[in-house]
Amino acid sequence: MTRRHGRPLNFEAMEGRSLPAGAGPATSAIVSLIEFDSAVARTVPENVGQVSFAVKRTGDLSAAASVQVRTVAGTALEGYDYAAKAITLAFAPGESIKTFTVSIVDDLQAEALYKSFRLVLSSPSAGAGLGMISNRTVTIMDDEPASRVPLSFIDFGPSGLWTYDDVQGFRKIHDGDAQAVVASSNRMAYVDFGAAGMWSWDSLRGFRRLTDLDPQSILVVNNDWTHAEDVVLADLGAAGLWRWSDSRGWARLSDVDPRAMIVDRQDVYIDFGYGGLWRYRDDLAAPWYKLNDAVPESMVADGTLFLDYGPSGLWSWTGAQGWRKVGEGDPKAIASIGSTLYTDYDGAGVWSWNDASGWTQVIAADPRTMKTAGGKLFLDFGIYGLWSTTPGAGFTRLADADVQGFTPSQGGDRVLVDQGAAGIWVWTRDGYRKLNGANPDAIAVTA
């Protein structure tokens, strides 16, 4: 990850020189435009075999013309999900339409339900130019039943790292003892194996080592709606903060070691301690924005950023409203659903705050742990069980056991529960059932 310096440029003096009349690159007038026949994204099943596309030419068609077309990988991978294409389409005089096909690979692996790649037109011949529709997105819908259910990654310590879903059951993917596992909505996992470095896993390529360094924390940023590739932020301690993605590899974002990071959709909020609180957004031309210099005790975000500043109170921040103080007091823990903040005030119970209702007590009892996912608040009350609630609704008891930990799916419609010596259990709308008698060290769930 060492940056190499380029060769210095050597500029010759131009004083006293002049360019002869007419010198410079030759140009020719564009008399026809070449583009795809439609801008609409195509969604095809994995077992479709081949997909046909049309490229049209408009304008003066009296001369021959050509254009290059190629595939560009996204979450769909060349050679794994589709056959790479790089061809030249040649239009004969008078010809306005050319077609070509791309082969789709039908494998037997459960993957992300939707994966996409692009078709790109380039290098039109002399006299031709590219029209407005020079890119086309193709989305492949996986046809394995397991792709439609959440995938869990479970670390059983010395017994290795396993996956679980309701269709395929348990499958061992590694013998090592992971220090941390982070799952993405693309059914991928990023694993910290300590001195063995940081690795990625997916069902097609298996494990790939991303770096020899031992990360202190890992965050995954992606967008379920666009099926975009994962963008991973890794705190590599003294080596600083780095970004990784399949298409771009590694890039160093900061020399400073972050104190804490959270992700909210495409935004990442990073606490650099006395270096300040910053927002990072990878898809912006200016990705960094400093929020303030204060150091929060904790922060949560789900569309609105909430921060606990201890004796200085509770604050919210959005790009539209800026900073607002929403309450006093120093809670034991905070969580949020959209613009509603939840606070655990220990002996005073759990309270909620939003603009419409102000402060409201949710329950007088003190939870051991609270988490949010899919618009639900999950509360672990120890010997009184695991419960969930949604804003303005009552409580649902998920488990009456004293659990050691729980992990809701990103959609909030299932919860994996660690009951220690009693094993792993799962809650869904269909009830509560046991999956395995082993005691896990860690659990991560994709969706």
Looking at the structure, what is the overall shape?
Answer: globular
What is the number of strand segments? 41
Give the count of structural domains.
Answer: 2
Main sheet characteristics: 5 strands, mixed
**CATH fold category name of the largest domain:** Methylamine Dehydrogenase, Chain H
Radius of gyration: 27 Å
Cα-to-Cα separation, first versus last residue: 32 Å
**Helix-strand makeup class:** mainly beta
Q: What ranges have pLDDT less than 50 throughout 5 or more consecutive residues?
A: 1-27
- CATH C-level category of the largest domain: Mainly Beta
Arrangement of strands in the largest sheet:
2-9-7-4-5
What percentage of residues falls in helices of 4 or more residues? Answer: under 10%
The proportion of strand residues reads over 45%
CATH superfamily of the largest domain: YVTN repeat-like/Quinoprotein amine dehydrogenase
Query: What's the CATH architecture name of the largest domain?
Result: 7 Propeller
Number of helices: 0
Describe the structure.
The chain is 0% helix and 48% strand. Strand 35 (386-389) and strand 36 form a beta hairpin. The radius of gyration is 27 Å and the shape is globular. It has a 5-stranded mixed beta sheet with strand order 2-9-7-4-5, with no helix packed on it. Strands 6-3-1-8 form a 4-stranded mixed beta sheet, with no helix packed on it. A 4-stranded antiparallel beta sheet has the order 12-11-10-41, with no helix packed on it. The two termini are 32 Å apart. By secondary structure, the chain is mainly beta. The chain has 2 domains: 32-141, Immunoglobulin-like (Sandwich), CATH 2.60.40; 145-445, Methylamine Dehydrogenase, Chain H (7 Propeller), CATH 2.130.10.10. The protein is built from no helices and 41 strands.
